[in-house]
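Hey all, quick one. A colleague (J.T.) asked me to put the adenosine-5'-triphosphate job into the tracker so the inputs and the structure tokens live in one place instead of scattered across chat threads. No bug as far as I know, just bookkeeping. Sequence used:
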Amino acid sequence: METSEFAIGQRWVSHSDTALGLGIVTDISGRRVTLGFPAADEERTYAIDNAPLSRIVFQLGEEIETFDGSKYTVRAVEEIGGILMYHADDGEQTVQVSEVKLAGSVNFSAPHQRLFAGQFDRNGAFRLRVSTLEHQDRLRASAAQGLIGARTQHLPHQLYIAHEVARRHAPRVLLADEVGLGKTIEAGLILHYQLHTGRARRALIVVPDSLVHQWLVEMLRRFNLRFSIVDQSRYDDIKAQQDDVDALVNHIFGDDDDGENPFESDQLVLCSLDFLVKSKKARDHALAAGWDLMVVDEAHHLAWAPEQASPEYEVVEELSAASKGLLLLTATPEQVGIASHFARLRLLDPARFHDLETFRAEEQQYEAINSVVRRLQATPDRISEDDKAALQNWLGDELAELLKQESAHQAIVDALLDRHGTGRVLFRNTRAAIKGFPERQPLPEPLPCPELYEQARFGDAGLAPEQTAGEEQWLAEDPRVAWLEKKLASLRPAKVVVICARADTAMALESYLQLRAGIRSAAFHEHLSLVERDRAAAYFADTEQGAQALICSEIGSEGRNFQFAHHLVLFDLPANADLLEQRIGRLDRIGQTQAIQIHIPYLQGTSQEVQYRWFHEGLNAFAESCAVGVAVHEHVSSDWQKALEGDQAALEPLLAASAEETKRLKTLLHNGRDALIELNSCRRDEAEALITEIEKEEGSAQVRDYMVQAFDILGVDIEDHSEHADVLKPGEQYQSGHVAELPEDGLTVTWEREQALQREDMAFMSWEHPMVTGVMDSVTSSGLGKAALANLSVKALPPGTLLLEAVFAVHCPAPESLQLTRYLPVSPLRLVVDVNGRDLSKALPHDRLNELCSNIRRRTAQAIVPKIRAEVETMVDHAERLSDPHLIPLKEQALAQVEAGFEPEIRRLEALQKVNPAIRDEEVDFLRDQLAAAREAVGHASLALEGIRVIVTS
Ligand SMILES: Nc1ncnc2c1ncn2[C@@H]1O[C@H](COP(=O)(O)OP(=O)(O)OP(=O)(O)O)[C@@H](O)[C@H]1O
């Protein structure tokens, strides 16, 4: 009996998460279905179209258990109004059990019961099941888990961060690598890991308008993560789909709040921050949907001051409370000031960052902390008395506790970085630490100031004086225009990115260059729709027919990837040094192969010249990435303002003071904050070990061998394409239910990452490709290979001897929030027994049996099974008895890991509570309760029989 229509009361299981147990349909509304999972005390809502659910129908002869613990054997099944009624007996009386009454933690479809019910498979399916469990177990224990499938180069700083952050439960961190070092990739790796390991299911990415499409594409092509965009047009579509009567009612009553919540229809959603700020409805919907992980790119837009938060900050603050994990991304965390930086850290970790003034005061101590940390690391076996006193001062009573720990020095360093640095929350890699970036060459072009700008030489207006003149006029008289035209002609065919502060300037320049100067160019600014912007960027990227120049407004200076170009023209200069870094970062990013030529046309005797000299001589911000620009500006702001206003006398002192302050701050940061953050952001040796592990996993041919084995059983044909590549096609016996993502006309795949990086048209098949994980999940959650019957012909055993090869795996239903799979591996246990209970596991290894066993014809097998039922039951009992002792060490190990996972967290919160009165006792109690619940759940773990092969000798 098979049905796929949902009805309230039906029982289904989640094949993506069997630990939930047997679910019951509690609500069906619109395109969503909600199930309660009593064993795990969880409720889940799925989109009906792609719910990972399988209907559970117990077969005749199988045992069922009701929620009050009574057990019955199924004798007949009938369907009444979509609900199954089991006619069952307990040996004495016959009862009718509605499926509604079945227990939630029932372990359905026991392999031997499947066998007796005639549901057995050939040998190959059993073999596939065993190897699936073994691979799952190995992969889950591997440090490479979650990081294998990405179509990216293995860069140590990225993998280190991803590994460090992604393993956390509900991570909340600021990814603040310098511009262009790959924060998007880091966020993608973390997302991929969290989704792959089930630590997160629902994720929301919030980015500026101009980056929506780029994120969509990066997530899909690099990580196989398919996000859905929610924007105004999505709402328009929903509205259009509403039936006419609804629309009429809404129109009359002015109520358009009903209708679908598009944030709930998908698990992975991408949305622009601008849209969330503008649309209250979208905001409310996003809030109501709830998230496991939220990513916010270009987080420097989230400005905050003690008196007033920006609307962007408010939106993210609200949403961050509705999301368990939070990743904020920005290359320039202090772009809008230290207060905003603090406020963002507070969103991430309110327990640690509770007071702005305390935060400021702490920053003064970084240098002293750094020197103690360095000494601790240099001499791991002793601490000087002076350092002990300093540590006592910083860590108080906690020090004594930390000193008792096994690796006391590391624990103290970690506690210091966390409690007195930005340790757990902030990651920042710098070009200086990573090395290998190309040179940046500033090429100033002083030009005479035309009369046209006589009234707009200085102040802010002087930075973009064209806004004070008519368009025709400035295009004709501003010498930067003629210079640009000539420069582009002389550089042809080299690609050039031109950035100016304002959209009007970009538009006027672009149409001038295109129409009057005959230069192939494209404009990129905020007045274009998202599609038009992507089209412009693609036209510019095209190497054969594309534009030579892309004329961008300031939005082109964020997040975009233009590293294929080597020339940047700064048509004007921004006021803020971080913005300058963002602009240069479009070209100065991973993948840039040549020196970057930065052309800087400026008008002499205007604020442009002042700004050029300030950036160049004061901050050295053209030639090198400058992280201290905003802080230096705060220090010299009144002189800077004066110089910008045209006060000649202020300029030289400004340049001298800025250069000195830049040097001072860089040294300070180098020895203080940056050093502390660097300690945290990439531990080289760990990163290298991780890469070795990932490459070992990728380098082995195991994934292909496994999939070849699976394809053989699931009816997928493999044709040779070229070295490392194949073409997969549905064959005659194709079982589409087990193989997701295989198009009818086939799929070209590569098994090698290097090839995948070159050939984006090929799917990159790794252990973490959705087709591979889909097959693995489908094998373990379905009945495939659970029971098999085989023939063995060996002289050593008399004909007619029966053997049982059984495979067990750890089973532990528990609330998902506990994430117990972290501690309890699958741990497949294979045993071979005979009818007398002899343990033959070692004498008859799995591979040897695979070689020796052959299939029995189905008819013959069906005739044999009823005759050997009693013996099989006896052998299953023997195997279960032999399996029992294996569970004890597994549980002990899991318990130790549970403690090791929770206790540092509890200690940390207790330590922070002493300095932060805002931490409530309930927060600490919550963790203690979680620990108790995890202990209890581990206590109930069992070894469940996952598959059997009954072997008959001949
Ligand atoms: N591991 C990698 N493998 C291949 N390409 C990479 C890798 N890391 C980064 N890149 C490429 O380098 C460029 C910069 O990466 P990304 O956009 O993630 O940087 P970012 O730090 O977010 O930049 P920004 O500060 O400008 O937002 C992108 O083109 C990206 O595709």
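Adding what we noticed when we looked at it: Residues 784-953 form one domain. The pocket of adenosine-5'-triphosphate is lined by residues 152-153, 155, 158, 177, 179-185, 331, 559, 561, 585, 589-591 (CB under 6 Å).
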